[in-house]
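Why show two proteins at once? Because comparison is the fastest way to build intuition. When a single record is shown, students tend to memorize it. When two are placed side by side, the eye starts asking what differs. So, the first record is below.
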Amino acid sequence: MRIAYLNGRSWRKEPLPPGELPAPEAEDFALVAAAGQAAGLCFEHAYWDDPTLADRGYDALLIRSCWDYVDRLEAFLKTMESLAARGCKVVNPPSVLRWNAHKTYLRDLAAAGVPCIDTLWLDRLDPHAVARGFETFDAAEIVLKPQIGSGSRDTIRLKRNAWSEGDLIAGPRSEAMLQPFLASLETEGEISLFFCFGHCTHAIRKRPAPGEWRANLMDAVITPHDPTTAQKDTASAALAAAPSGLAYARVDLVLAGGAWRVIELELIEPRLYFAYAPSAAALFVSAFGAGLAA
């Protein structure tokens, strides 16, 4: 079985040399390719925008480090939809990608009863909306993020009575989400659980680097993690409320008010962190192969 391992042509807005992967993805790809070889699955590097993809005889197109999709979102989504329309098996499915590309999916999860981070959804960022956010959450600090984005781009943290309109320049450019800042991010960090066709393959804890508060940056401190029952239950609730047809997922959890809540449900191009769970790549490949064959 031949599987296209789809990647982007740039990383952090910098072009990548032909055939080269971003450093974090190169680690994962090596482990997946080796596990695939042992299981009779051939994973091949390919670009998501390669016009010949549909004609190359792949059994599936696996979306991986297409991390340039945020800057080319509609082109990316339409390309995946076009490939699926031509009979290619795109995983995750294009309908899932379109739903997950806009972080208002968190609103859908919350409406389904999934514990999520409290969020105000803003059509545009302005000082009055920010001031209302502090009042709504009775928060000493808040975080502002773009509704479409990744890697903490255009994400800012503001302290009550210690911010100005000028601080918003570094924030979201258009639609925004406003959340109370959680002190647990600096102590507990984030817990990430990884799933392939419903099977939990591994979990990690991501803590911010010293002096930092964001756990999803490259210098974060990563450790393997044995998820608790409460963490598994919250992650499972998020998957149950998401669209059907998921081949893979990463559920990011944070501690808020003594309970674990979803801060992200990554269904497009989550980093998989296989280097921190040596057996996970084989588990992922095995579940992936079985899921495709089912």
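Second record. Ask yourself what differs from the first in the token line.
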Amino acid sequence: MDATAQPPHRPDTDDGTGGAAAEIRLEGVSKVYADGTVGVAELDLTFAAGELTVLVGPSGCGKTTTMKMINRIIEPTTGRILLDGVDVTRADPDKLRRRIGYVIQSVGLFPHQSVRTNVGTVPRLLGWDRTRIRDRVDELLGIVGLDPAVHGDRYPAQLSGGQRQRAGVARALAADPPVLLMDEPFSAVDPVVRERLQSEFLRLQATVRKTIVFVTHDIEEAVRIGDRIAVMSSGGKVEQFATPAELLGKPANAFVADFVGADRGLKRLAVTGIDPADLERPPFVHVADGLADARAAMERVGARWAVVLDDSGNLHGWLSAERATGAGTVGSAGHRMEAWVPADATLKTAFATMLQHEAGWVAVLDGDRFLGVLTPESLHAALRRSVEGSVPEVAGAAHG
């Protein structure tokens, strides 16, 4: 779209809801304060519909200012902010904010109102009837893991920190907004609760698929939850806007490399899935096979162990060459398989499983069906290939 063209004004819907995710586009957006301080400098960014975009950077870099300009809590000095093609700087700010969910670090629940009343705040402002509000509140409380019958009539002071955050997310989603803004929402809880909330939120996002702008100063959180990440530096400049794998594999400059950390190779494990092409296929035998036949199968390929499958091709265990002796069957001599991960796990999960069980390899399963194994060598090769053209981060690693 021509940056100088003015899109037609589209009136808000009667109930203020948006439903489907909306694209957000920032065109030449800046914020300059009265004393000349530049909070944000000429940003051109597109937040794709249905994606979770993280703004990350050190304190004072303009990430929260950028987010607050989207719902006009802070007014931009220059530029346009387009929500599905409509310039929000020309919209009524109160109606705009009812179409955008907002979750902050301190949650912001009204302390004198019950959880149920808090969650129904925006629908009440939009004029929904009581039955519709109650049904929507009960639905959302269940989605975020709060039993409406147990927690609905409690007050914020009667909830744990994690429960208050869940209630805050439910309130932000109450009117089914197309956009959700989140300003360090999980930073006030302890690390264990924080990780649990991140996991639950990712599960929720997989269901609702909102366009989310998420602010954090924590690069670990950013790479775990973000579809794309904008790394910002002082003065509100975006140094790199990329997927987590691209960001960790190919930092754009020294600032980004320093910010993501020298252990970025390890961080990449957490954002790199298991590719079936990276799996090794060791010899396999079946539970009903004789031990002599199993040993012969291993000797043919020079292996010291084999995977044991049942008649349906599902993983049963493993068998070492040392135990493949005598006249029995494989099923009577095999070991139970402890080191395994599902096919949708990350390389980090696979590596952690190897370490936990002190195993030289980890089996990868699709349900119960055996797909192959990851070894330390194949895991390292998969990590190196996760970002095309990235430089190996292990000293002495061979260059392809």
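One difference worth noting in the second protein: DSSP finds 16 helices and 16 strands in the chain.
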